[in-house]
Every structure is written in structure tokens, then in C-alpha cells.
Amino acid sequence: MPAVKAIVATDPTGPLTVGTVIRRDPGPRDVLIEIVWSGVCHSDIHTVRGDWGPVQYPLAVGHEIAGIVTAVGDEVTSHAVGDRVGVGCMVGSCRECDNCRAGQEQYCERGFVATYAGVDEDGTVTQGGYATHVVVAEDFVLRIPDALPFDKVAPLLCAGITTFSPLRHWNVGPGMRVAVVGMGGLGHLAVKIAHAMGAEVTVLSQSLRKRDDGLAFGADHFYATSDPATFTTLARSFDLILNTVSAPLVLDDYLGLLALDGTFVSVGAPPEPASVTLFTLFTNRRRFAGSSIGGIRETQEMLDFCAEHGVVPEVEVIAADQINKAWEKVVAGDVRYRYVIDISTLAQG
Ligand SMILES: [Zn+2]
Ligand SMILES: [Zn+2]
Q: Which parts of the sequence belong to the Enoyl reductase (ER) domain (predicted)?
């Protein structure tokens, strides 16, 4: 397979430029995908900037991929040419460990193969979805239901599953009181999904600036965390708090909002260690937890759920040459609520 056109980083701090990445020749169990839409996740920026450790350049990032199958290997049974498909944060795992067998590939005991900046089974560094094509093993390729709008679906592949998985794991449904901390790319989907699951949803946002949006997305209540009264008004009132922000929080304040047997689960994390007064956990037998993306089966379940319940990400479509500006805005928190790159503008540009 020849090199394919891609938006690449050539160093940690410089602008992204148009270049190429090499894709492997599709094997018998591989699917060749022509990428049509590619979501922009804050993780893309952290990875390129080296915030999470050194990476090799040039690097194409992007792990919210929506595209069309253009070729399949001889042994592929689950996807066919012409299908609309998605790829998220993983493109492989050992498939043999207990966690993989349980459909929890994100917790593969040998570590899953990340969609970009990961080490592939052949030893090469994986390259992500800011590109015209990708080759992925069929068992890591998701079906995109017809009911989901193609241009908006990509963010479900990372932001969607990252919030769906903990909501599902903690059995969110009617009668549950769920708080979502932060209403950005992840948080806005958490609100929509928790609402679709039937929960009573409260948004805890820094200010009331996004209140109208939050209520339109299905939130029942919206509070500003900059107002200290929020933490007394809402004390002991949630069964589950899903934290989607990466800024450091005064965790004791948030844990104090949990009712009996309530859980605070974080999918956002500041780089520094956090501090918790353990006495806060004794009260109401509270739990403090984390969660990482979701398994492949669960990701398919999430896509099907979103199709059935009309859960669709809020996106701003950009052309390939707007990516550097878009990254600046993501860093500034100035996006409503996810950028999606129209990859046709890269293919033709
Ligand atoms: Zn992501
Ligand atoms: Zn495994």
C-alpha cells in the first residue's frame, strides 16, 4: 500500500502540516477504510505535545474515525465494501487474556494497541485518523447504524464510549441521580446519554454560560461550581458523579455530593496526583473510581444505543487547513462541542 495523505505533526510544538503516512498492505483479516470524517480529541493534542510521554514524529493523530470500507481481506466476514464504519481509540489487543476474552480490550493485560502512537503487532508505530485511509483488523472496526448522521458520528468513537461505558457499568437508568462535571466534548455527550438512559441529570459546570445548551441536551438541572452555595445545596444528592474535566478539582467538595453508596468516577485527569480526605469516603460508603474508554462490543452497543435514542454529538465541521486554529480553540475550551475534520478537504487539498 502506498503512503497516504495525512495531517502530521513533525515536532511537539510546531503547527501540523500536510504530509504522508504509510499504511500496511491489508492482510486477510484487515479492512481498508477511506476516511470521511475525523474527530478532534484533546488527547490528540496532549499526545503530540508530549504531555503523556515522548512520541515519534512524524505522527498523524486522530482516534474518532468514520469512513467507508473500500476493500476487505479474504477472511473478513463482518464488514463489506461500501459499509459505513468507525474506528475508535484501539486498533488491536492480545485477544487472549481474560480481559480481552471478556470483551474489555481496553484493559488488555498486555496493553491494547492505540490507534496512534501505539506499537502495532508488526512493531511499527500506529498512525491515526487525520488521514485519507486507514487499515484496521476487522474485529476493531465498528458498524455505524444508518440512523446516525455520518458527519456527526465520529466523536462517539472516543468521547461517546468514554462516557457511555461508566454510565452503563454503574447501571444508570430511571430513578438514578447523575451529575456530569464539565460540559465539553465528553461532558455534553455524557448529558445526552445519561438522559437517554432515563436518569435525572445535573450538570456541574464552572459557570452558567452553557446552561441553555445543557438543558437542551437533556439536563434537568444546571449549577455553577464557581458558586460555593452549589456544594451545600446539592450535598448528598447524587448516586453517580461522572467527572469529565482534566483541571484539578477539590475532590472532597465533589465527594460530599454523593448519597449513600454513591460513586464518583473520573474519565478526566490532571497530570498531578490528586488528594482526597478518606473520611469523606466513610460517610455514605462512597466510592472513588476511574474508567478508560470501553470495549469493542460495548462500543458497538453504544453506537446502536445512540442510533435508537437519537443521541448525536454537537459538532463543528472544519476543513483540513483549519486544524491548527481548531487545536488552539480546543486548548482554550472554545468549541461547541467537538471539531470534526472533513477529510475530503485533505484528499483534494
Ligand atoms: Zn479521545
Ligand atoms: Zn488482552
A: 14-332
